[in-house]
Amino acid sequence: MQVGIAERHRDDSRATTALVLTDQQRASFQENGFLSVPEITTADDLDRIADIYDRAFARKLGWDDGNYFDLVGSSDDVDEFQIPHLQQISHYCPELLTTRYFANAASAAAQLLGGRAKHIFDSAITKPPHSHAETPWHQDAAFITETSYFESLVVWMPLQPVDQTNGCMSFIPGSNRGPILTHQSPNGDNRINGLEAVDVDRSKAITCPLPAGGATFHHFRTLHGAGGNHSASPRRVLTFGFGARRATPTIVGTFDWLAAKDNERLHRYRSTNPIDRIKKLVRPLTNRIVMALEGR
After folding, report:
1. Could you tell me if residue 9 is inside a domain?
2. CA distances (Å), 126 to each of 58, 97, 129, 135, 215, in order?
């Protein structure tokens, strides 16, 4: 199903017209846990994003904070990264939050989650050319490090066309309505930042090729993965994550597979700030107050 954006080639990256999904698209997302649209932004906006993206990776932004890392490799040497990953890229490049892509992603996320959708994270993921490195099958919920009251989704936009040759996304329909599976570090190596779900049945997987500037949306419980990049060009993707607050926790506690991880990147990333620990303790009370203020 196509979602059109008017005046595609006009320089309207800061325009306020929101993307509107159909009832059928929203129902499909609720049933299957993912949705694919062929166009979420304009050509001019995409060019602007690509320029910001390339400069961020060239400077290796986020390294000192533990936000620039390899998703599937165990080396801390950036020259050996198999899938370079820049977490929270908007922290370093806030202009990404003024793009047409972000505006449309936020609008669609609110429609799919219902109510208010809060921007909670983002990331940029590059797969180098001629790379066999795959993104393991996993659920994003398995990466959540503590009790959460948010139900979330991820918007995944490629900066170039993607198919099975260079690592487009694949999803397992209906897995959003199932449990969070047991996950583990790939190859049992707890130095690796990524996760892979155990005993995934891929027989019903659906592959979603996209043009540049198209997008997929997936629920945080939806099983998904992506193949390697066997093309001659980098595969670049920018994602935004949004969450809607719920009355009861959507994730409780910390998963064992996360507690077991240990590498140099995590030493840079993990906070020892006592204020952060206090925030965790008062989060249930904070959630009740916010829900009451929102009249829910």
Report:
1. no
2. 12, 20, 9, 11, 16
Prediction pTM value: 0.87
How many domains in the chain? 1
Q: For tokens 């926790």, what's the residue?
A: 249
CA quadruple 193, 197, 198, 204: dihedral sign: negative
pLDDT in tens, 244-283: 999 999 999 889 999 999 988 888 876 545 555 445 454 4
Q: Measured between alpha carbons, how far is 268 from 62 in angstroms, rounded to an integer?
A: 10
Determine the structural domain holding residue 101 and report its residue range: 23-293
Phi, psi (deg, nearest 5) at residue 183: -120, 165
Residue with tokens 């959540």: 144
What pLDDT, in 10s, does the model give residues 40-97? 999 999 999 999 999 999 999 999 999 999 999 998 899 999 999 999 999 999 999 9
How far, in Å, CA of 13 to CA of 195, rounded?
A: 35
Dihedral angle of Cα 31, 34, 36, 40, to the nearest 10 degrees: 110
Q: Cα 296–121–282 angle (5° rounding)?
A: 50
CATH code of the domain covering residue 250: 2.60.120.620
